[in-house]
Write a structure and sequence with these properties.
about 325 residues; alpha/beta; eight-stranded mixed beta sheet; 10 helices; globular; binds thiamine diphosphate; binds iron/sulfur cluster; binds magnesium ion
Length: about 325
């Protein structure tokens, strides 16, 4: 995007150079939905992913995020088509590899917030290892997994969150593998913000997105998002409009209590919605910035590549 402000990003070293300010930050208006929306989404009519996208637009509008202050990253899947539909920087990356890509952005660009969107297959199957490691490193970003309990893009295979007995192309007689519990997985992996929401409750989705964005660390949201094509009705039990119940986290729940959060995560479907776990811990971003600062202090005047070269020379 071409419009830069007096708050435009700057980095030490010589890799990024930033154009002179054009409009002072205080005078800039927030983006409108028209300015944020890119291509028309190619999802099936009625797909839950539409709501998540609409609420992301709302978040951007409400929080007055400018194009150059956000980035939207995804892997591969229906849900992962997300960045195509957002008129801002972002990447539709490799299946299961969105998090390492997003980590690079987060660690080098402390001035912006990285949002990652993807599916249950992308997050917990092929990308399962990256999920665990990004969480344990507490790298600042928001990861919203649009969980539909199925591989949608590839037309109905069993996913790691498909319940036992789910009939799919890969389990014609019903799934026999025990599903993972995304909330338990996130808590035990070390995520410092863990929340659960559903596409059928827009206000709640927005609330969770805002809280996640404000968290200084790895924030994870499991957002139920129905695949009307290959798993219709999967989440009816959590939707009051379909005779289900939407139960929030109890008011007296202590979000810093890991065991209590784990217990909540163990409730039978439809379970609870809201913030299960939230603690403050130093991020990798902060720790690495500190190391870089100290190191660069020792090599004042040298360019980034010269410092890097010195490091390589030391390894010989
Ligand atoms: C390396 C690699 N393996 C497999 C695929 C095929 N593939 C594309 S999307 C996908 C699963 C998508 O499921 P999910 O992440 O749950 O997203 P959804 O489509 O349900 O939103 C698979 C297996 C691929 N694109 N790349
Ligand atoms: S196949 Fe399912 S997940 Fe994919 S766009 Fe259609 S409804 Fe959505
Ligand atoms: Mg899926």
């Amino acid at each position: 995007m071409s419009t830069l402000t007096s708050e435009a990003p700057g980095r030490s070293g010589d890799i990024t150079s930033v154009a002179a300010p054009i409009v002072p930050a205080a005078e800039r208006k927030g983006l409108t939905k028209k300015e944020i929306a890119a291509d028309h989404p190619t999802w099936c009519p009625g797909c839950g992913d539409f709501s998540v996208l609409a609420l992301y637009f709302k978040l951007i509008e409400k929080r007055k995020l400018w194009h150059e202050k956000i980035t939207t990253v995804a892997g591969i899947g229906c849900s992962s088509r997300f960045p195509y539909f957002v008129q801002a920087h972002g990447a539709h990356y490799i299946h299961g590899r969105a998090l390492p890509f997003a980590s690079g952005i987060s660690l080098t660009r402390p001035d912006l917030h990285v949002f990652v969107f993807g599916g249950d297959g992308d997050a917990f199957s092929i990308g399962g290892n990256h999920f665990n490691h990004t969480a344990r490193k507490n790298i600042k970003m928001t990861y919203c997994v649009m969980d539909n309990w199925v591989y949608g893009l590839t037309k109905k295979q069993t996913s790691p969150t498909s319940p036992l007995g789910f009939k799919s192309k890969t389990d014609q007689w019903g799934a026999i593998d025990y599903p993972i519990n995304p909330m338990k997985q996130a808590i035990s992996a070390g995520a410092t913000f863990v929340a659960r929401t559903t596409h059928t409750n827009p206000n709640h989705v927005l609330q969770m997105m805002e809280a996640a964005m404000d968290h200084d660390g790895f924030s994870f949201i499991e957002c139920l998002s129905e695949c009307v094509e290959f798993y219709e009705g999967a989440f009816d039990a959590s939707n009051p409009r379909k005779g289900g119940v939407f139960n929030t986290v109890p008011a007296d729940h202590d979000v810093t209590d890991e065991l209590a959060a784990y217990k909540l995560a163990g409730e039978d479907f439809p379970g609870r919605f809201g913030i299960f776990y939230k603690v403050n811990k130093p991020t990798k971003n902060a720790k690495e910035a500190e190391i870089n600062k100290n190191f660069q202090g020792k090599f004042a005047g040298l360019k980034d590549w010269q410092i890097l070269q010195k490091n390589f020379d030391r390894m010989k």
